[in-house]
UniProtKB/TrEMBL annotation:
Full protein name: Gamma-glutamylaminecyclotransferase
Function, as annotated: Catalyzes the formation of 5-oxo-L-proline from L-gamma-glutamyl-L-epsilon-lysine.
Gamma-glutamylcyclotransferase AIG2-like domain residues: 4-105
Family as reported in the entry's similarity comment: Belongs to the gamma-glutamylcyclotransferase family.
Organism: Calonectris borealis (Cory's shearwater)
Record-linked CDD domains: GGCT_like
Active-site annotation: 82 (proton acceptor)
Domain of life: Eukaryota
Amino acid sequence: MARVFVYGTLKKGQPNYKHMINTAKGLAKFQGRGRTVEKYPLVIAGKYNIPYMLNIPGTGHHVAGEIYSVDDQMLQFLDEFEGCPDMYQRTLMRIEVVEWEGKGGAGEARAAAEGVMECFVYSTTTYPPEWVGLPYHDSYDSSGKHGLSYVLRESR
């Protein structure tokens, strides 16, 4: 099992969460909530209002999200879903645990207790330069005050 940190449309209550609970795509078990140890710019960009974490460490905010344990099948699905490696790149990032529900092995419990763990995160280094000038968010909600409604894939 791998740990994945999601910060956008795959979180609970967001438009693509249905994929995280679709066992036909693999297994994803919610472990807890966290935020990035480093600051990153989280922007909502493009004509479909997609949330992107720009891989510019030290700029922006500590981005809030959810930590999942996923099997290889789900990780492969997420790679395809996220357009990895072209649109997003899956990299390891340090995530500060804010709230932990996971029931993993001793190593996982120790990492959670220490408050920081490494998780795969889909961020991007392949973005138009003007995205750096967009407003930065510390968390994403598709129906947030930003007024930028996410466009589902099936509606594009």
